[in-house]
Amino acid sequence: xxxxxxxxxxxxxxxxxxxxxxxxxxxxxxxxxxxxxxxxxxxxxxxxxxxxxxxxxxxxxxxxxxxxxxxxxxxxxxxxxxxxxxxxxxxxxxxxxxxxxxxxxxxxxxxxxxxxxxxxxxxxxxxxxxxxxxxxxxxxxxxxxxxxxxxxxxxxxxxxxxxxxxxxxxxxxxxxxxxxxxxxxxxxxxxxxxxxxxxxxxxxxxxxxxxxxxxxxxxxxxxxxxxxxxxxxxxxxxxxxxxxxxxxxxxxxxxxxxxxxxxxxxxxxxxxxxxxxxxxxxxxxxxxxxxxxxxxxxxxxxxxxxxxxxxxxxxxxxxxxxxxxxxxxxxxxxxxxxxxxxxxxxxxxxxxxxxxxxxxxxxxxxxxxxxxxxxxxxxxxxxxxxxxxxxxxxxxxxxxxxxxxxxxxxxxxxxxxxxxxxxxxxxxxxxxxxxxxxxxxxxxxxxxxxxxxxxxxxxxxxxxxxxxxxxxxxxxxxxxxxxxxxxxxxxxxxxxxxxxxxxxxxxxxxxxxxxxxxxxxxxxxxxxxxxxxxxxxxxxxxxxxxxxx
Length: 549
Fold this sequence. Notes:
This is Mechanosensitive ion channel protein MscS. It contains 16 helices and 10 strands.
């Protein structure tokens, strides 16, 4: 017994460090630290690469929209792109800083280890690596483990001295069981700790197909492992107390309370695990369908519906899981469902506007009135659809303003991004110009524009000539239109106007400015009122000074 006391107090610090490292050796702990730092550095590099790719994509998209935009959005709507580019640049800077900090920390730790190895004397053992100080009750117990062990040894000494040999043998046997359970608990807890630090690492092929799966797993799996560690701690304490006859686990498990509690815990754990698996499978499938690198590229409508499906399924899964958990706990959910029905009816009467939003949104989605990326006019506001929910639509207008419009205020949807679009050109020319000359000039301008590689693919047909559309105050208005790829009509129209202006200037076809003809009233005697005209000049450069006529 004295030898046991001596061993406990002599090795109290190494054992405390071993416990705080989660049952790892020094080499394992250093390897785990390096693996964690390497994983953090890789994550930072991946985020930086993704941010750089997003920035390059935003720049390419902005350049593509300079002369007419891309399908689904006119070139005027570029404020959101600038904001996205700025956000991508900020994210890239933050990711680069994180990568640099991780690399600096790794270099400092490597240098410190090398310096410690060089400065260490040959006789004494090298200094142990820095051990993290755990917080909470487990950390206090790990650092002061020798006190409860010493008390236990003292208790065993009293038993050996006061009890017969058979009792002492049983006490030693129980002590061995307690020690074995504690060692197994420490080893399993250390393995779970390493898994929590390392995180879930999926194969590259799976990550490429479902890029968000690993992030979702790493958001929930460490928390589940932490709960499992707590459960292991409780089990170890219970088995240790059972070994020293403080409690009787077998009789408690055979009792009605034990059976009920065990059944509830296992059922709730099974429901939660199945719900989590279903949620991960659903969201991963949606991510796979939205990933353009695998399979067919999802259309705008598919992206909208899949996003709505993911949100709606998540809400439904949470509600159903909560109902199952409450039912397994023993609560009667029938009154809850009845109360929820009454509450829903009351909310329906009190929130008719929201109900109208949801119902209108459902019908708009069924009718495929708009999708993310379309240019629409709703409730008098025109912009690019950036977000669609079951209750509202979010638009970004030409000034960059972000509008959230509830569906209850939408009485008409004008979509500019369906199948094709027209640029309608109303060109005013002077009354003295010949119609045939103007028509030929506009057709020549169209042919020149169609030869431009920047706009050739955006034009879907020939120029449609309508002829004289109106007689204005100072111009004859000629009308024509060009059929374009949806979303490109604005850019094509601006380019066409520029070419028409060049050809009109080259052929001396006048685009008149407004004229006004003044008629002075006459008296009954046929005399016209005096009309004074003042000519303003400075008397320089051959111009006369101010005169009145």
